[in-house]
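To illustrate the input format used throughout this study, we show a single complete record. The first block contains the structure-token representation of the backbone; no residue identities are included at this stage. The design step must infer an amino acid for every position from geometry alone.
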């Protein structure tokens, strides 16, 4: 994707700008008069939440956190909310939104709302279950959006995929922040926290790797590269990324060259 940054905040900002640019192009397609009659039924997409809630409930009280999280997502997507006199967030009404006849723009907005519900609570097992459902819902709506307007605008498939990739990169960056914050709370050594955070960013996908490598210490990267998944992801990135991006990262953080040389000698020619 070619997005870089001098630090995590800069990288996140660049992702946001790229995402806004792609979103603007997608919006132009959805507002195309040729697509004015396109409609999407998102009700089956929301039913995935009911299925997941039912499956989690079968696991007993240990799954209460998952059920509550999924129900909260469902309520947030189907109802407007307000604050009552005691400061509690409550539903603004009792009638759920009708999601059976959405315009492409409304379905796109719903897709983004689903993505925004991705959670990093510090309970990995619960988060994994909830986020897997959200990912499935997101993909379902992306497919319906592609089908609804691709006849008039075949480029929508590529744009929606790029938007999804940028969304994943943004979430990975957010998750890295969450990991660092949790690590600080439990007073982990800086090297350990750095390794965890770096590993999380790298595993978030190719788009997150440049910023992760540009900002990591050599010690933290060496620890992170002890994980096979992280090592494999960096190797894949080196094998597919443009030389100019790799060079820029190494110029920003020359201290990591030795670590990469040792861990991935087959890519020595790219690490000069």
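Output of the design step:
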């Amino acid at each position: 994707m070619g997005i870089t940054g001098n630090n995590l905040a800069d990288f996140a900002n660049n992702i946001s700008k790229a995402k806004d640019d792609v979103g603007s192009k997608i919006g132009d397609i959805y507002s195309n008069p040729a697509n004015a009659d396109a409609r999407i039924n998102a009700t089956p997409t929301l039913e995935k939440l009911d299925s997941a809630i039912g499956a989690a409930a079968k696991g007993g009280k240990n799954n209460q956190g998952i059920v509550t999280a999924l129900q909260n997502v469902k309520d947030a997507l189907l109802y407007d909310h307000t604050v009552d006199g005691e400061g509690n967030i409550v539903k603004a009404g009792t009638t759920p939104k009708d999601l059976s006849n959405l315009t492409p723009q409304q379905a796109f907005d719903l897709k983004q709302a689903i993505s925004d519900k991705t959670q990093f609570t510090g309970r990995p097992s619960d988060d994994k279950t909830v986020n897997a459902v959200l990912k499935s819902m997101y993909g379902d709506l992306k497919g319906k959006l592609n089908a609804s307007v691709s006849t008039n605008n075949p480029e929508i498939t590529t744009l929606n995929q790029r938007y999804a990739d940028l969304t994943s990169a943004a979430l990975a960056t957010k998750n890295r922040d969450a990991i660092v914050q949790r690590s600080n709370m439990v007073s982990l050594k800086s090297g350990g926290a750095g390794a965890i955070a770096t590993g999380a960013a790298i595993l978030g996908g190719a788009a997150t790797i440049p910023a992760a490598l540009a900002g990591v210490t050599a010690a933290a990267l060496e620890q992170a590269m002890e994980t096979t998944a992280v090592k494999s992801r960096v190797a894949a990135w080196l094998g597919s990324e443009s030389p100019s991006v790799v060079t820029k990262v190494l110029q920003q953080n020359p201290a990591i060259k030795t670590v990469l040389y040792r861990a991935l000698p087959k890519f020595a020619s790219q690490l000069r």
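Structural context for interpreting the output: The chain is about 65% helix and 0% strand. The beta strands are 81-83, 89-91.
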